[in-house]
Write a structure and sequence with these properties.
Length: 570
């Protein structure tokens, strides 16, 4: 990888906002005055300031993506970058993928200002005290030179040390270092010879670092493959706050939405659906994927090239429908008792949202109409089957596209087309013997355990309640030491430990029930339950629920569970 070296004066005067801009995928400038001062101190002190990554955009492609100007006059009150016009630039242009904060800092320090609020609004520029001798310290946080953002060059009378505040940007006025020294000579006539020497040394060094030394080394990415470029951008920005792919797409969308602020809308909506019920963890990725999936005639692949200005305009115009249908789907999940843990493949909700967009139901969530209730029941069972059969575990984009086409092919949307969808997924609506055996072998608090247990409570009212996975016979009793203490031989211990953590010994209790039960002996606790508890939790009838009868309990309960799962149909 070869880097192209440039001087700071060359880049700040000839590149930035002339041929070099920021892409929409960049986030805004976030450095404070300390960070800028530290950068200039590093430059003066011969510390490396790392490399840069520029993306070369061919002239014929430059209008495809939005360009933004580098900030020169930073204002904390309105810290947003202006969109750049590249119409009159008859050549290739560059987007900075890595180095925005540093380049903006150089631009502000040499050519601009920094306005911030601290008790009052203050507009400052970068100065260097050229009378302060450089001090090398073992502490890397301490400055070698005295750079400071100030309102003016008037010395601080409370500081007894000698001061002459030189406006750093003035160094750009001189191509020759000697000219910059001559310019300051008259202003230093009242200072001592030692102070003049320090000042001359500072001015010469500053001129050298800005005009002569090629301190800015950048790599030029020439690919016009936007997704490759985004991958390079993410890799280059691994320091600090981790950038997610959705952050990149959000920045792109924010730049191209006309009437809405995409970042605010998508963040707010994501927070809103995550606050449903006891809480979910939908990410921005899910919402952005939904934007593509629920908007007509858009590709569904999650790639930057699909978030063009035209496509984003379609998404913005369809935003209300997108949010209505996703929100309705999440509310259905809450009503069905699906919590964040049991939604093991959240993208499985998108075909449901797509269907609801076709159905356009009114008051669907709370409807007691028999057709709506039946349709909800079908949706719930279809989702359970597809999740347990891992129907979305393969190429998700292909699967989603196939299901979208299947729904579009329907002529009647009054009933959720589960049969056609299952056919497209190549799955059956029921569980065969092998599948049931595998389901019952599932262990406590694993990927599918909560979902499998939820099948055992078809009539449960889930809405607004929290349910916990609970060991029927307390797991604390199944340690090898405790089982040996009961006088069990090796084979019996092995069987007990084989089954205690599986579905056969699990149930779903409300959070209050689970807290009340704790690790109490099941036989004792069971005797205090209501008359419906046994049927509600699929508890078999055996002679005694003593711990010694655990294996009999497992055998008989497994029969009940198999029967219930075999009769499960959509």
């Amino acid at each position: 990888m070869s880097y192209i070296p440039k001087t700071i004066s060359e880049v700040t005067s000839e590149y930035l906002n002339r041929t070099t801009f920021l892409p929409a995928i960049q986030r805004e400038f976030v450095w404070g005055t300390y960070g800028i001062e530290k950068l200039f101190d590093s430059i003066m002190g011969d510390f490396p300031i790392s490399t840069f990554l520029f993306w070369k955009i061919k002239e014929e492609n430059k209008k495809e993506w939005t360009a933004y100007e580098f900030l020169r006059e930073f204002d904390q009150e309105t810290p947003h970058n202006n969109e750049a016009s590249v119409t009159g630039i008859n050549q290739d242009i560059y987007f900075v993928l890595d180095g925005q904060q540093r380049l903006t800092s150089l631009f502000i320090g040499l050519k601009g200002s920094y306005r911030y609020f601290y008790y009052r609004w203050t507009k400052t520029k970068l100065y260097l005290n050229i009378l302060k001798a450089p001090i090398k310290s073992d502490n890397p946080e301490e400055f070698t030179y005295q750079f400071q953002f100030r309102e003016n060059d008037i010395p601080n009378l409370k500081d007894p040390n000698p001061q002459y505040w030189y406006l750093v940007g003035d160094i750009l006025n001189f191509d020759d270092a000697e000219d910059s020294k001559k310019e300051i000579k008259e202003r230093l006539k009242d200072f001592t010879d030692d102070q003049k020497d320090i000042a001359n040394s500072h001015i010469g060094r500053l001129h050298s670092r800005i005009h002569t030394s090629r301190l800015l080394n950048y790599y030029e990415e020439k690919s016009q493959d936007y997704d490759k470029v985004v991958e390079a951008f993410i890799r280059a920005n691994t320091g600090g706050v981790k950038l997610e792919y959705s952050d990149i797409l959000l920045s792109t969308a924010t730049a191209k939405w006309v009437n809405l602020n995409a970042r605010e809308e998508i963040h707010s909506f994501t927070d809103n659906i995550n606050a449903t019920g006891s809480g979910y963890s939908f990410g921005k990725d899910f919402v952005l994927k939904g934007c593509l999936y629920l908007t007509d005639d858009l590709p569904i692949q999650y790639k930057v090239k699909n978030f063009t200005r035209t496509n984003l305009e379609k998404i913005e115009n369809n935003w209300d429908n997108i949010t209505d249908n996703i929100e309705m789907t999440v509310q259905l999940m809450h009503k069905f008792g699906f919590n964040d843990k049991s939604l093991v493949a959240k993208i499985a909700l998108l075909p449901i949202s797509f269907y609801l967009g076709k159905l356009k139901p009114k008051n669907f969530i709370d409807s007691t109409d028999k057709n709506d209730v039946r349709n909800q029941n079908i949706i719930q069972k279809w989702l359970i089957v597809t999740l347990l059969k891992n129907a979305f575990g393969g190429s998700s984009d292909t699967i989603l596209k196939n299901l979208q086409e299947t729904i579009n092919a329907q002529t009647d949307f009054s009933v959720f087309p589960y049969e056609a969808l299952n056919k497209r997924l190549s799955i059956e609506a029921t569980f065969n013997d092998t599948e049931i055996e595998n389901l019952l072998a599932t262990n406590y608090s694993t990927k599918y355990s909560y979902l499998i247990l939820s099948l055992l409570y078809p009539d449960r009212d889930w809405k607004g309640k929290k349910f916990h996975e609970d060991h029927i016979f307390p797991k604390s009793e199944f340690t090898a030491a405790k089982l040996k203490a009961r006088g069990y031989d090796t084979d019996r211990i092995k069987e007990y430990q084989k089954h205690f953590n599986s579905i056969g010994n699990l149930q779903l209790l409300t959070d209050s029930e689970n807290l009340e039960k704790s690790a109490e002996d099941f036989e004792t606790w069971f005797a205090t339950r209501d008359t419906n508890f046994k049927d509600r939790n699929t508890i078999p009838t055996i002679s005694t629920y003593n711990f010694d009868n655990f294996l009999e309990f497992i055998t008989e309960r497994k029969k009940l569970l198999v029967k219930r799962l075999k009769t499960f149909t959509i």
